[in-house]
Amino acid sequence: MGSEEHACPSCGQPVELVVRRRKTLGAWVPSWVKGPCQNPRCADYVPPAPTDPAAPAEPHADPSGADGPTAPPNP
Predict the structure, then answer these.
(1) Core-most of 6, 16, 49, 54, by most CB within 10 Å?
(2) Taking 80 as the threshold, does the pLDDT of residue 64 lie above it?
(3) Which intervals of the chain are annotated as region Disordered (predicted)?
(4) Residue 26 falls inside a structural domain
(5) HEC sequence for 20-34
(6) Which runs of E-coded beta strand occur in the chain?
(7) How many separate domains does the chain show?
């Protein structure tokens, strides 16, 4: 990548690179793109996502592997 800086097209402030993925010939490959602008005075500003340490990041699956209620066994 070298030392080239990537800038916001609206305000010119440097932005960081983020990794996205794309599928090429059946394989997922990384694709580096410009990240969101962090300048609050910019028209393209994207506020950081709120982080709540009490809330789980994603729902957890049932450890038993059951997808829902099961029917009672036949007698």
Answers:
(1) 6
(2) no
(3) 38-75
(4) yes
(5) EEEEECCEEEEEEEE
(6) 6-7, 14-15, 17-24, 27-34
(7) 1
């500003």: which residue's tokens?
Answer: 45
d(CA 41, CA 63): 46
Q: Which residues span the domain enclosing 26?
A: 1-48
Q: 5-46, pLDDT tens digit by residue?
A: 788 888 888 888 888 999 999 999 998 888 888 888 888 888
Q: Give 67's contacts (C-beta < 8 A, 6+ positions apart).
A: none
pTM of the model: 0.45
C-alpha to C-alpha distance for 75 and 69, rounded to whole angstroms: 18
Domain annotation covers residue 14 = yes
